[in-house]
Amino acid sequence: MKKFKKIVSSPITTAAAFVLAAGLLLFSSIGGARAALTYFSEDYETNIQLHEIGITLLENGQPVEGEETLLKHLLEEDEVLKLGKAYPEELHVYNSGVINEYIRVNIHKYWLDENDEKIPELSPGLIDLHLVNLGTDWLLDENASTEERTVLYYNKLLNSENGTVPFADCLTIKGGVASKVKETRQTSGIYTTITTTYEYDGARFCIEIKADGVQEHNAQDAIWSSWGRRVTVNNGALSLD
Hints:
Layout: E1 4-8, E2 38-39, E3 55-59, E4 62-63, E5 87-95, E6 101-112, E7 127-131, E8 138-140, E9 149-154, E10 168-173, E11 181-188, E12 191-198, E13 204-215, H1 219-227, E14 231-234, E15 237-240
Antiparallel strand pairs: 1-12, 2-3, 3-4, 3-5, 5-10, 6-9, 6-13, 7-10, 8-9, 11-12, 14-15
């Protein structure tokens, strides 16, 4: 993290100097290749052909494929990310396979340093991916979710060549990022050196999203075997046990 030092003429006099490289935040997961793009389940090779299961993640109506990442079109060219601003980020899942499926989505949010190492002490809560349609179409698995990880299940059978309703609609990096500071003082003779550091200075936020699915046939057992989650499927509707 970057630091800015101010030397003052007496131990009593204080001065504050703040530096925030907010522009670095715009790199988020751009170039990170961390979003789960098109996913093909390998769990049921003995039951079905692999090519029959297909999951495509859609971002603002566009498929995210290959090595592309989420947030690719979040900002206009030369635009600087603004703290507290809600950017459109509509996310849903499309069944690109040839069989009907049940869908799960895993969302991970965290901060990285300049070496792409995770910074666990920085709060994922300041990365606000606004979730929608919870309780009506998407079920939040509270037992499996943490501040960093969110697990969602689509509560309907997703037919081939159909898409879910969105599970997110916008992304905001909360303004609280700019208020997280710490100050240290070091006195030598009549001089005091005050170092004020923004805790998020130089950090990059990252969002990983992985969508996967299992086949309709024998879905309850398939979901338990594949995802380790007990569910009930009744007339095509999925509920968490």
